[in-house]
Specification:
Layout lengths: L18 H7 L3 H13 L11 E11 L13 H8 L5 E4 L5 E6 L2 E5 L5 E8 L2 H19 L4 E4 L18 H13 L3 H7 L2 E6 L4 H21 L5 E2 L2 E2 L5 H6 L7 E2 L11 H9 L2 E7 L3 E8 H4 L7 H9 L2 E2 L1 E3 L3 E7 L3 H15 L2 H10 L5 H14 L4 E2 L2 E2 H15 L2 H16 L3 H18 L1
Parallel strand pairs: 10-13
Antiparallel strand pairs: 1-5, 1-6, 1-7, 2-3, 3-4, 4-5, 7-15, 8-9, 11-12, 14-15, 16-17
Keywords: ATP-binding, Ligase, Nucleotide-binding
EC number: 6.3.2.2
Protein name: Glutamate--cysteine ligase
Length: about 450
């Protein structure tokens, strides 16, 4: 693996490289900006297919005593994927014959770097269909794993292991990412190996609708992280502050994580987004020799002399990990993995907020004037004070309550019921992580008394 560039040096930003200068060094830069913009614009949906959600829930495989289960264990994740093939017959293997995923129409079961199991499903028009799909998956994996004293848990971070003690799956992409991110900051291996999330994807009906939702999703991301906090343990120890996931992501790689630069500027455009993607160091690129080749150059330099293909655009975007990611949909990423009722409640929240003009208008007013410089202070305040924090000049608890009320008012009666688990947490100003920490403290007190 040839690593000639210093990964400790921050990449130049587009603001430090005027467009004219970049065009001289990258003759194809303009056509690549246009290719990325065209890719995002290809996601525009007609209004009649609106209001759909894509949902991804990652789960952590453990033994019943909460110790890790790896990919290659006797009844590990490779075995589980193979056992799922009668129901998910579309299989994905790597060059060495290792099974990496199974699928069926509208559902894909894949694995993350340390064998976290993810079901991506949808898009769903109705929350009841999402609940049915994910519930069926949970029932099937429970049926398979129970006889072997194993299970999949929905937590934001591995409950007993340190990340670097967890084995990577046999996927070349993750080997390269592990090397690069381990040198960038302290939490790259933690993100890859220890974490698990709930991600919701939403549609847009125009460029303006896309950028509006993208900006508002970023504005809300710190509060959404708080509402969905489910990380009571981090690196095998009790958490040290609320929203450990948020703190972890601040120390993965500033070139590709957190806030997309400029995203909270009302004048932010798809061209700005595309330019930012081109300035991200690649880590890896597709190549014929070994499927993936290591490359620390920015994508704009790698494709300096030719226009990127759609597959290359998709890959470049996939190698950025902001709190909100723009593909052919808006992918909202700050939530921890949560038990199914809470994950679907989160879906209800997102649906009520983003698929209602009344909600969007209210959010525009609520977050008017929020800019990039306000984002990290909002995160830090929440990690310090939780629901007692001040965010963008507002009380975090009142802001979270407002989001719940806006979503509730935008949903019909059937779907309002799915919002209740998360709404109840917000009403009580507690998180799943808070409750787990309290349970752990009570259990420890009981052991001490004995």
């Amino acid at each position: 693996m040839n690593k000639t560039a210093s990964s400790a040096q921050p990449r130049p930003t587009s603001s430090a490289q005027p467009a004219a200068e970049a065009s001289v060094r990258q003759p194809a830069r303009e056509s690549n900006i246009e290719a990325i913009v065209a890719y995002v614009e290809s996601g525009i949906k007609p209004s009649e297919s609106h209001r759909r959600l894509g949902i991804e829930i990652e789960r952590i495989p453990v033994h019943v005593d909460m110790q890790p289960v790896s990919y290659a264990d006797p009844f590990g994740v490779a075995w589980l994927l193979k056992a799922l093939t009668p129901h998910y017959p579309r299989t994905t293997y790597d060059d060495h014959g290792d099974l990496l995923g199974v699928a069926r129409p509208s559902e894909a079961v894949t694995i993350e770097p340390a064998a976290q199991v993810e079901l991506s499903a949808g898009p769903f028009q109705r929350l009841k269909d999402a609940y049915k799909t994910f519930s069926a998956f949970e029932d099937e994996t429970k049926r398979l794993l129970d006889p072997h004293n194993e299970k999949l848990v929905t937590l934001g971070y591995h409950p007993t292991a340190k990340a670097r003690d967890l084995k990577l799956i046999p996927k070349r992409r993750y080997q390269f990412m592990n090397v690069y991110l381990s040198e960038r900051d302290t939490a790259g291996p933690c993100m890859m190996r220890g974490s698990a999330s709930t991600q919701i994807s939403i549609d847009y009906t125009s460029v303006a609708d896309c950028l509006r939702k993208y900006r508002l999703a970023f504005c809300m991301a710190p509060v959404l992280a708080l509402m969905c906090d489910n990380t009571p343990f981090y690196e095998s120890e009790p958490r040290t502050h609320p929203c450990m996931r948020m703190g972890m992501w601040q120390h993965v790689d500033p070139d590709r994580c957190g806030l997309m630069p400029g995203a909270l500027d009302p004048d932010f455009t798809l061209r700005d987004y595309a330019a930012a993607i081109l300035d991200v160091p690649a880590i890896l690129v597709p190549c014929q020799q070994n499927s993936w080749c290591y490359d620390e150059r920015p994508f704009g330099e790698i494709y300096a002399n030719r226009t990127m293909s759609v597959a290359e655009v998709e890959h470049a975007i996939s190698m950025t990990f902001p709190d909100v990611r723009l593909k052919t949909f808006v992918e909202i990423r700050p939530a921890d993995s949560m038990p199914l009722p809470y994950a679907i409640a989160y879906g209800a929240l997102i649906k009520g907020l983003f698929y209602s003009e009344e909600s969007l208008d209210a959010l525009d007013e609520l977050f008017f004037g929020v800019r990039d410089a306000d984002y990290e202070p909002a995160q830090n305040a929440i990690m310090k004070d939780g629901y007692r924090a001040t965010v963008y000049g507002m009380d975090a608890d009142a802001l979270a309550q407002t989001l719940v009320e806006l979503a509730h008012n935008a949903l019909d009666a059937e779907e309002q019921a799915y919002l209740k688990p998360l709404a109840s947490l917000v009403e009580r100003r507690v998180t799943l992580a808070d409750m787990a920490c309290l349970d752990a403290e009570e259990a420890e007190a009981s052991r001490s008394a004995d």
